[in-house]
Amino acid sequence: MEKRKAYFLHSNIGQHLTGIEKSAMKRGNMFVKYLDVEPVFVTVNKNVNIHTNWERYVENGIVDPDISMINLFEFFQRSEEGKNMPPFQIKKEQTYGYEDEKSAEKRHIRIFDANNKLVKYMVFRSNELLDYINYFHNGKKIVRDRFNRFGQLSHTEYLHDDNTVYMTEYFDVYGKRVIVKYDDGPYLISDGNAVFQTVLPDEQALILYFLKEIIGQEEPIVIIDRNKRYSPIFTGQNQLNVKTISMIHSTYFSNTAFRSKINKNYLEVFNSPYSFDNIVVLTNNQKQDIEKRFGFNNLAVIPHPCKITDKLDQKKPKTNKLVSVGRLAPEKNINHLLEVLSLVKQHIPEVILEIYGSGKELQNLKKLVQKLDLKNNVTFKGYVDNVEDVYASSDLFLFAGQAEGFTMSVLESLACGCPVGSYNVRYGVDEMVQEEKNGFLVDFGDKESFAEKIVTYLNQTDEEKQYYRQAAIRTAAHYTEEKVADKWQQLISSLS
Prior knowledge:
By secondary structure, the protein is of the alpha/beta class. The protein contains 15 helices and 23 strands. Strand 2, helix 2 (50-59) and strand 3 form a beta-alpha-beta unit.
């Protein structure tokens, strides 16, 4: 008998994981290990590197190799069949002039006509396979061909004068046109002979068409991780034979001061809560708040799972080393941590802060490091797939976000025996961090108190710090894969 499938609905698998994708991968790994359920990731963004990214996460142990990933465009384009097919070959034309450049990462070829006008610009990946070709007419870019990871033509973009795309044609690996997309919404789907058989009005209709293709007649579970993208499909007329679970990954509100405005990612869910069999939140406090305000009765609390670090006694933290892990985004308030660190430095000059993550705030944060004279105390480490050793080798993990759905990085830190210093915000932090046991909490924005508590902690003896580290592990033990899997098993059984 085949396992029941659970489709995890996502947008993309990028070169860097967001917290939502990372938490879903942890959930999928847990399903494989403990439940009689087969997880399948579903993605709908066009990304020619999506399978390359997925395979890297499998190779690095982030996602179980038994979990499959289906992408909308790759499904229709049959992209993976290109693995055993030859790449597109460039034929050199004698009447054109060629300018060939190579760099460490790419190869660039510019092609000129007899009047020395640029007509083509070809870019190759580091493996010498074509990445894209731009075509020009009278100095203007008019068309772009993009190629898949095996070097076959993936899609052709037709450009306005301002270089925006007005139409895209997608091809399968055998050169047949399978989808045409217009920038104002319509999608045309072709049959096996490249003749159009279906016209779809917008992306929502395309995603529904795709889900019907992959799900068929089975009755699987659908877990909606990206609600803004997918929820409208399920809040109207039920067109899929599925059991639905909506995941609330962040706070249900967008205004952290008054909580009056619903987070736009969950508007469809809150406007039509009973379109879903269950709505899963990550903390008891958020469940209580939603029930009190809205009266929903289909809420369940299932936190993210964690793995407890092995051999904690053998993992010695570096004295006075602090760590931050997460996106470098404004809402994460990494600038607060830098300002706090400047206060800590007045008492402990040798203190260091390692910042792991990537994002649009990087340059602003680097400027602030210079302004606060922290260049010898702060290191930006970039994005890494595995951070367990980072937590285990640190004295203290710092978090300065203003509102979270759970704060997975806090749990990961505790599971590695690294205590946490954080603003006291909902949700997650206030349920996981216990004052003077496994870390400390301070009121949001109180940087002076934050710095004082860091100094107090760092000045403790190794024995005292070890007490905190052991307490961190005991807290994380409430969130082990086995315990969280039991909660998922109960919920899934109730959907039968």
